[in-house]
């Protein structure tokens, strides 16, 4: 899903990495909002904070789409 495909108010899903534990990630719902301090920019509102939406951010329209990518990225069975 591209940055230009979303509008303020959309609910999206992201693969969120815990900033305190690099090997911990999960799927979180976020809301697309107008960034409060960057006029004309979109942001993800997640965990009570704003993340300026970047072209490189992987956002998904549904939980199942995010889960499919999560399983591809974190398929630990391939390492066993």
TrEMBL record:
* Alphabetical list of InterPro entries matching this protein: Tscrpt_reg_SplA
Q: Which domain of life is it from?
A: Bacteria
Q: What is this protein called?
A: Transcriptional regulator
């Amino acid at each position: 899903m591209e940055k230009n495909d979303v509008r303020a108010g959309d609910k999206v899903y992201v693969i969120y990495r815990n900033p305190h534990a690099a090997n911990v990630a999960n799927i979180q719902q976020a809301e697309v909002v107008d960034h409060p301090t960057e006029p004309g920019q979109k942001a993800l509102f997640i965990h009570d904070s704003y993340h300026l939406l970047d072209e490189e951010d992987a956002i998904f329209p549904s939980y199942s789409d995010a889960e499919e990518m999560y399983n591809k990225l974190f398929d630990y069975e391939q390492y066993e």
